[in-house]
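User: Quick sanity check before I run a bigger batch. Here is a single chain. Can you write out its predicted 3D structure?
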Amino acid sequence: DITARQKDAGKYYTINSEIGNGYIDGTTNFAGLTTSFKHIVGNIFPSLADFIPANDKAKSNSLNDFVFFLQIAENEELLKFFNAPLKIAHPIKISGRVDDLDGRATIGIDAPYLVQGKKLIEKTSLSIDLDGDNDMMSINAVSQLDHKNGNILLVFNGTGANDRFDSDINWQYDRKRNFSGSINLSTLLKRNDDNRFAADIDINPTTF
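Assistant: Done. Predicted structure follows.
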């Protein structure tokens, strides 16, 4: 069930179903969302800007400026229908914002408990902040895998700006003996002389 009502200069949408509940609040141009993200990402990674078609650039006059929230319920039948490898043991919350005027888009996902077979996956979260106005972005992801010999904590952090993306992957196995590590990568995006897209990846000091 989807309802909409006028609010200030935009609209307020509500979504209620067996799958989940949520809302969208603000000025929306759903047809232009892809263009919105392309322009924001193009400011952060200029080498990707050439992928924006001319007709997409013309659509950017219709601006998006809204926040959204969605809570996905534990719906085992739906997951079976899509043959999903995971089960939702606790509602998943998704929230974020799209603001064309400020050139910004954010999304956050919080999944406290997921189940894969007989294994429990805890404290899973993802946050992405695309700041096209300041030409930078950040990504953070965390998840904990339950294991009979101890929990395994995985952490991913990434930052991007000016055609460069730095990423750091950390893991820690909670055992009597220390078992942890970190992989640090730097990726430089560029265009070759023939305008083909290319990426140079450097492995920075890494520990195991």
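The CA atoms of residues 152 and 173 lie 4 Å apart.

User: Great, the batch can go ahead then.
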